[in-house]
Design goal:
8 helices, alpha/beta, Rossmann fold, five-stranded mixed beta sheet
């Protein structure tokens, strides 16, 4: 699965993002939760327990890593990674042996990343890593960076004001010859269904648990609502469920390009990203290489 399903932790109370992401309820997810007897509303995927689940389900996801690493190799100087999460993209970036600053709004995610960075398996070159707890549109860092990375189509987590602020800050901290790398889901090539009732997949999650992922569409708000339900079984045959929800905005690439250019950045190149397991809601992803 692609990490683009990680959303809503980057809330700016003054941005109106909650109103933007107020998607319609997912009928499929609601029905599954009722069958399971799950009465509590889904938690934020970036909550403490949600962060652990997210780390588990993305641990072996290699999507976009070859493309990002190939582009990053062509740059020099320190690396700034925005919305780093628990380090899915951080790990290959550390193989370049350059100082890295990882920014994320979740203290739980950063705590997991801190533990990983201290190990030889994750950071064999003992690269200097600075962890910054901040919204990706509100980060404040010192110095300039030869490479700024924003993966997992995380740009779709922000409203227009948040994207403007992010691009402005990236331009300020980007070296004159530096590059800004971001992956983008091409929403222009996707047609959301009229109904908000979407698709559902079931996958194994360890020996005694499985993951149900239900996707609902909200055309009125231009968003995809994702509910992840973790069902774990005990030795006595009983089970427990936990549910987490997130929203992904469908952002037109033409609008995104206009916003990037308006903030003084130039799109130098667009490269296709190979998706290991394409789905109707996840295909046609690109890596945009931007400069000043």
């Amino acid at each position: 699965m692609f990490a683009a399903t990680r959303v809503t932790p980057h809330h700016n109370p003054n941005s109106g993002e909650d109103e933007l992401m107020n998607t319609a309820p997912d009928e499929t997810a609601d029905a599954i939760l009722r069958i399971l007897g799950h009465v509590d509303p889904p938690e934020d995927l970036y909550s403490a327990s949600g962060s652990r689940l997210y780390d588990q389900i993305t641990a072996n996801d290699l999507t976009e890593l070859p493309e990002i690493l190939a582009a990053a190799r062509k740059t020099s100087g320190p690396i700034l990674e925005l919305a780093s999460g628990s380090g899915r993209i951080t790990r290959p970036l550390l193989s370049l042996g350059r100082p890295l600053t990882a920014v994320d709004s979740s203290p739980e995610m950063l705590a997991m990343l801190k533990e990983k960075v201290a190990t030889k398996t994750f950071n064999p070159r003992d690269v200097q890593v600075e962890l910054v707890e901040a919204d990706m549109s509100r980060f404040d860092v010192d110095g300039v960076y030869g490479c700024v990375v924003l993966g997992a189509s995380s740009i779709t987590l922000l409203d227009p004001a948040g994207r403007w602020e992010l691009f402005r800050r990236v331009r300020q901290c980007l070296a004159a010859d530096g590059q800004f790398l971001l992956t983008v889901l091409n929403a222009d090539n996707h047609q959301a269904p009229v109904s908000n009732d979407g698709r559902c997949t079931v996958s194994a999650l360890g020996e005694n648990s499985f993951l149900i992922t239900a996707e609902g569409w909200d055309p009125a708000n231009g968003a995809r609502h994702v509910t992840m339900i973790d069902v774990s079984f005990g030795v006595d045959g009983t089970y427990r469920s936990s549910a987490y929800a997130s929203d992904v905005a469908f952002l037109s690439n033409s609008i995104l390009e206009e916003e990037i250019v308006a903030e003084g950045l130039t799109i130098l190149e667009r490269r296709p990203v190979r998706i290991a397991s394409p789905s109707p809601g996840l295909n046609d992803v690109e890596l945009w290489v931007c400069g000043k």
